[in-house]
Amino acid sequence: MELRVAHLYPDVMNIYGDRGNIIALRHRCELRGIDSEVVEVNAGDPFDPAEFDLVVIGGGQDREQRRIADDLLTRGPSLKAAVEDGLPVLAVCGGFQLFGHRYVGLDGETIPGIGIFDMETRHPGVEADRCIGDVVLATEFGAIVGFENHGGRTYLGSGQEPFGTVVHGRGNNNGADSSEGARYRNAIGTYLHGSVLPKNPALADGLIEMALKRRYGDDFELAPHDDAAEQAAHASAVARAKSREGDRGLGRGPLAAGRRLRAKLRDLAGR
Fold first, then answer.
1. Would you kindly state where each structural domain of the chain is located, as residue ranges?
2. pTM
């Protein structure tokens, strides 16, 4: 039994250690005696999504998104067809944004996406705070914990399902609702780093099981594993995120201090 994973643009879309998601997938397969093959796909490389069981793309800044956008657009039709056929995808942060319709930057420049998720992301302007901090979500995979650090605000289409609902932290998407990420069929988009899969083994297992059901049939079930240590670490991460909720959204350090000062001045001006 084998899991074939395509890792898109790992040379540039790997901010905040998103490569850890690949390490987690391989480890969770190894625990069950499942062979795994990871193929790195960079700009210009041959790529047929139909040859893979799972696709993963990490995050990157605006500059990195611009570097890969044209190449990703050429792959859009085949990726969309594969997702319609049930291909699981994990798209994180900048990768998540490019799997929507577009990202509109600070200067109005539009970086087109491939439209797997019905959504768009917009830069909120220089005066807006970044969304920074720990997040806990309620999802079909249970509680999911991770770390967000993004400026863009993501707006889902009226029929677009979010990945989860924010329980603690700031989340998506846009500050106007409690949605985080997006979900279409077996494709999942999220802003959560951490990396997200090492922190959430249930999500890693869910992606693996969806991928192998697609290859081997609906009767396939991932063998259980004693996850006592992983569950304890996950519970600790959730508790830590909840305890830090009061710090969400502004971050730490000199730049964060400036953001907190501006927020305080805005509060005073509004009184």
1. 2-270
2. 0.88
